[in-house]
Amino acid sequence: MSVSDQISVQLPYLRRYARALTGSQQSGDAYVRATLEAALADQSLRADIARSRAALYGAFTRIWATSHVDEPVGADHGDLHEQAAQTRLATIAPTHRQALLLTTVEEFSREDCAEILGVETGEVDTLVRQAIEEIESESTTDVLIIEDEPLISMQLEGLVSELGHNVVGTAATRSQALELFRNNPAGLVLADIQLADGSSGIDAVEDLLKFGDVPVIFITAYPERLLTGERPEPTYLVTKPFQEATVRAAISQALFFGSSRPLM
Fold first, then answer.
1. Which pTM value belongs to this model?
2. Are 256 and 138 in contact (CB under 8 A)?
3. Comparing C-alpha atoms, which of 135, 124, 92 is closest to residue 248?
């Protein structure tokens, strides 16, 4: 497989990581683009990132940590959510946040995470623990779960409750989700894409966002339906089958930023 083909396979997931790390699709994509441009101009870097997924993320990390990248013309710098996200990000140690995202959302091993961040393997657990302590100081909120598989729905409900949040309801269809949200507006939504009656969790979320901005985490077996690069994508996307630690990290991040506006 060529270097370009190898990168193409990993690109949607690197973009997901960049968005979660920076709090902005535009900013995240700008750093990913800078990484690819650096690889195009440097044959040795291009050969290095072909070694492994961890090497690609390591190259991105070096660009993100050492470079200032201008966002594309048209980026909305006056956006209130973006300003709030950047203000809050400034309060969390960057390496802590990276370690948490790399080991949970991106599911790297401790060894790969250490390689990406340029730290000792034994430091990774400490960095993750510190990130959780910093991020999980959030107040509790009401959560709506949109999921048509009963066992997964129960698993998510238990996890959300263990984190101290209140589940206002679970919906298996788009219409159920809308009715529940009308009666009990939630502060966080966990949503599957493919629902019981053939309806779409994407459409359900778009319905809910008409009532106001609310952070949304998509938990789906079909991430490729959202990671297309053709429209604004969800900042928080967890792939099934998921680990509870991954969902926990996504919830912490979503509540930390207080918004996600995934499909507008």
1. 0.58
2. yes
3. 135
Strand partners, 145: 170, 190
Query: Is the Cβ–Cβ distance between 179 and 164 less than 8 Å?
Result: no
pLDDT, averaged across the chain: 84
Q: 67 vs 11, 61, 64, CA distance in Å?
A: 20, 10, 6
Summarize pLDDT for 14-26 with one digit per residue, the tens: 998 998 888 778 8
Residues 160-182 pLDDT 10s: 998 889 999 999 999 999 999 99
Q: What pLDDT is recorded for position 77? A: 46
Residue linked to tokens 């900042």: 235
Distance CA 195, CA 42 (A): 46
Does the CA dihedral 248-193-85-209 come out positive or negative? negative
CB atoms within 10 A of CB 252: 20
Average pLDDT over residues 145-156: 95
Helical segments of 136-243, H only: 150-162, 174-183, 201-209
Residue 121 DSSP label: G
Q: In the block, which residue shows the tokens 């990248």?
A: 69
